[in-house]
Amino acid sequence: MTLDELIVSRRSVRQYNEKKVERDKIESLVNAAIWAPTAGNLQLLHFVVVRDKGVIEKVKLFSPGMPKTAPCVIAICADLEEARLRGGEFAEKNTPVDSAFAAQNILLKAHQIRLGACVVKSYNKKSIGRILKLPGAMMVLMLITVGYYDKRPKAPARKSLSEVLHYENWESEMKQDE
Amino acid sequence: MTLDELIVSRRSVRQYNEKKVERDKIESLVNAAIWAPTAGNLQLLHFVVVRDKGVIEKVKLFSPGMPKTAPCVIAICADLEEARLRGGEFAEKNTPVDSAFAAQNILLKAHQIRLGACVVKSYNKKSIGRILKLPGAMMVLMLITVGYYDKRPKAPARKSLSEVLHYENWESEMKQDE
After folding, report:
1. pLDDT at A155
2. Least CA distance to B171: which residue of chain A?
3. Is A14 part of any domain?
4. What is the DSSP letter of B71?
5. Taking CA atoms, what residue in A is nearest to B120?
6. Helix, strand, or coil (residue B103)
7. Between the N and C ends of chain A, which has fewer C-beta atoms within 10 Å?
């Protein structure tokens, strides 16, 4: 698939089958994440990958946003105290945003290798941190469920370009031509 | 290029040449952004694309993080009051994060069509909002400079997988095998 095809045909997949996600697949996902840009190139993100069913059930208990089942959960984490120490307020504020750059690479790579994935933003940070035994100020910034799936969800409609693209400024959009 | 090649060979490009970024290229960038996931599928992001040199100079005055010159600046914006109204605190908090999912698609698509791009997170929100004539509670979440370039920057070193990838939990990483 071309990049455009990958981008457009990617879906948030929330229903997975039982097949285990292989270690080499996980490594290719996290490798894609590593190459996303980070604020000040600080590279503070860590990736805790959970495949143990018992641990996933525990994570699910504290994650109302999680799909019913998932064979694999990737927790993107960072130490925001380290962020502040190394890059000041700027890094502390932007490192959580960095997790989304990394996540989008994971979503595209997952789709390319026929894995489904879904971002989970609704979870209890402290509880998940404890379950994953995160040290000190390391905290979960985002969860991504990953797994194989039998049925690809339909695409939710997207706004058209003309609804969201503005040239030069908000008001002059109708005057623009090439 | 394969997705892996695109992801790994993308750079933050901060030096551009004078060539204008064509409208169809801009549309392909914003179209890639539209297909990124958004919190609650609310699709609140707008994209204000500036190519006017005078406006870009004004934006630069209030953006210490911006490269010296850029033939094109994409401002990713959203109305966070609308976010709160439609999706509560969850959407208000996560819509800024959505801008990074969209931005990563823009960065990858730019690289694929041989454009350089760089995310700018350090800027004066109010001033840039005024320059772009944003209405009401619409605000700038991220700037991306875009342009053609003569020289591709070298890759900054990345951490290795083993430094950032942990299995099951933070402490058990050394025990994992397949």
Report:
1. 84
2. A133
3. yes
4. S
5. A39
6. helix
7. C
Phi and psi at B17, nearest 5°, equal -95, -175
Does the pLDDT at position B173 exceed 60?
no
Optimal mutation site among A97, A140, A177, interface B, most CBs of chain B within 10 A: A97
Q: Identify which of B68, B69, B99 has the alpha carbon closest to the alpha carbon of residue B83.
A: B99
**How many domains does chain A contain in total?**
1
| pTM of the predicted protein model | 0.96
Taking CB atoms and an 8 Å limit, are B121 and A90 in contact across chains? yes
| pLDDT value at residue B178 | 46
In a domain, B171, yes or no: no
Instruction: Please indicate whether, in this complex, the C-beta atoms of A108 and B112 are within 8 angstroms of each other.
Output: no
Domain membership flag for residue A58: yes
B21-56 per-position pLDDT tens digit: 999 999 999 999 999 999 989 999 999 999 999 999
| CATH number, domain with residue A133 | 3.40.109.10
Give pLDDT, residue A178. Answer: 46
